[in-house]
Amino acid sequence: MTHGGGSCGGGYSGGGGGFYGGGYWGANSSRRRKNDEDCEKCCSCIFILLGSLLCLTKLTRKQRIAVFWVQIIIITVVTSTVLYSKYNATKKVNVAPTDMRALTKDTTTLLGDGMTLKSHSNFNAYLFKKVPRVVSNATALPYTYDTTLSLQPDRYEYYGYYLLPGSTIEQRACTYFTNSIVTMFVIRGRSNLDKWIKSKNKNDCGNCYIYSHVFETSYGRCSWDEQFNTYTLLVEEADDYYFLFANLYLFDSNFIHAHFRLNRTIYDVTEGLLRSSCNHVTHCHYPLEINSAEVVVIEAPAFYSHDDDMDVTNNARSWLYVVFFLVIPLVLGVSVSSLLFFFCKDPNKPERSTNPQTHRRQGTPGRPTRVTGGAANVAVIQVSDRTPLAPNLPPAYDCIPEIPPVSKEAGMPPTYEQAVQGGLDNVAAYQ
């Protein structure tokens, strides 16, 4: 049995936080738009990463390979963390007296090589080839529970039971006073319970409950059977079923007396049983075959004095994590990196001029280039945009010719006036 409660502003023991006020429903549309924008941004990032990988962006080969390895590392870490948290992390399962349930939620025999169970109270555990069939429990005595609770204004309390198909639960309840309005809701599943807690209108939460009843006026503190409201639930599917009492009045409290009577069905422990070595223990471990339909069933004896939380761990299959999240990413990374290196090209760089008569040395502006031709070097006079018509500008030193070196074959060099007047032809004549 699970017990909890709360109010509009908070809860306890899993009761949740009530509803969050008028902004809860109004925020759905803006939250939906935000999710669409986040999805578009995520898709854009994916296309950019794929483009950088498929040579669609201007990156060098080294940069492209580095981006690919970053992608591999992020995908591997995120995927392994999510899978481990979902299937292999330790979870708590609430167990009540006479409970019997198959541990099939968020468990897998592919990623888990065994099931470990720990509890502060004794329990029984069985290992089956597959989920066993459900049979009636005609020999067991019905489980009963009586309680009296005081509901303050604008508060609720609930009692939950895990029931197998074919089980029945009879609930009888009565209220002491008439100044407040007490409503009982029967809810199936934890998700529907959370939906009721978060809803603004408790009587209209989108079919989150399967039955509701408003208690009538009672006198004599529920002394007669006629004063009790009786409701019987026949379970069709295995799930958690909650009986919730809500005092929707804002001023007066109320007392409620409730009686629960359970007739449970159980799993057949004689068909398909592999192991049953865990009887009246507080710690148990069962190995699981890889990718099989094996399932562990736990049972809380009827002499359980109270509810207890059991730690359930689906032990990780270590070698499979190593193969899928270390070996395969390494092989894939090395293979794709090789393809990127040999088939992708680096971006083209701007080419420099190779003409010796127009190429100027970088870092020495204004200095002419010397050209080697024949036996002597000839100076190249570069044209400047500066003329005598602009006397205030500094002189253009690139207009001054470079005097060729003196050689024995050339004879005496020309005078300065002859070199300037004749230009290159005069210089060539003396060579």
From TrEMBL:
Comp. bias intervals (Low complexity): 363-372
Keywords (A to Z) from UniProt: Membrane, Transmembrane, Transmembrane helix
Ranges annotated as spanning the membrane: 65-84, 319-343
Positions of region (Disordered): 350-372
InterPro entries tied to this protein: APD1-4_M, APD1-4_N
Highest taxon of the lineage: Eukaryota
Domain E3 ubiquitin-protein ligase APD1-4 N-terminal: 122-193
Domain E3 ubiquitin-protein ligase APD1-4 middle: 234-332
Protein name: Uncharacterized protein LOC106160948
Gene designation: LOC106160948
